Amino acid sequence: MRTIDLSGKSALVAGVANQRSLAWAIADALSDAGARLILTYQGERLHKNVAELAATRPGTQTFPCDVTNDDEIDALFRNVGEATGGALDILVHSIAFARREDLDGEFLNTSRDGWHTALDVSAYSLVALTKRATPLMQTDGGSILSLTFQASQRVFPNYNVMGSAKAALEHATRQLAYELGPMNIRVNTISAGPIATLSARGISGFTHMAKHHEKMSPLKRNIEPREVGDAALFLCSTMGSGITGTTLYVDSGYHIMGV
Ligand code: NAP
User: Is 90 exceeded by the pLDDT of residue 2?
Assistant: First the structure.
């Protein structure tokens, strides 16, 4: 019988804000399969939430990391190196941010600063985290996973600059997969359908979009966070050992539709 067993593996999961976060659904699935978790939080504001969730999974450690700050990323990976004895197996990047004014109205009005912020936090951060994670994945290889959205490929009104950031993230996934493949480090991204999380609710018209997905997708429903967790578990385990550089759609099939 084939089962997924991540006992003895360690997973760094960045992007848990609260129980609804896709990062938590993924952490939950990895932990259920036996992985030891390390969670990051952005600043003291979120520390309490993340510490409470971590406490439900014995052995989980938490460290601060604002991905716009290289010193904090370096400090995080020093901590991760010590916590794991220098061997990390899984990195999950579940982070995105754009200014509210850039997630509404016309893309044409995106400011230079707004563009920079969205692409720095939501796309460059994958490169920055991966660069520090790879030295910890030298012995047994590893699996790196991020979260994207189909606005990278198609127009979703109000996604605006976040669509640009997701296109950059998906490109970075392929480029990193190519460069890290010889080290047996796999890099993939899950393109999730709409789920009402803290970030998602910041996008104008999100509720309307979720209803549209429900109506139009082949499965005639929206996805659940657990389904993102399950797909992540598959990709991060040996079950996904032949898969790298891929965007895996977990969206009730919405992405195949024309009209
Ligand atoms: P979420 O719970 O709000 O998670 C987003 C996370 O990004 C939060 O923990 C947030 O922390 C973190 N973050 C933002 N700026 C950061 C920074 N500078 N440094 C470190 N962390 C930072 O929302 P989510 O929906 O689960 O989002 C997770 C990922 O899934 C994102 O990449 C998102 O684009 C993607 N996704 C979501 C959906 C959806 O419909 N929900 C669909 C497809 C893809 P703070 O709260 O402190 O800002």
Answer: no
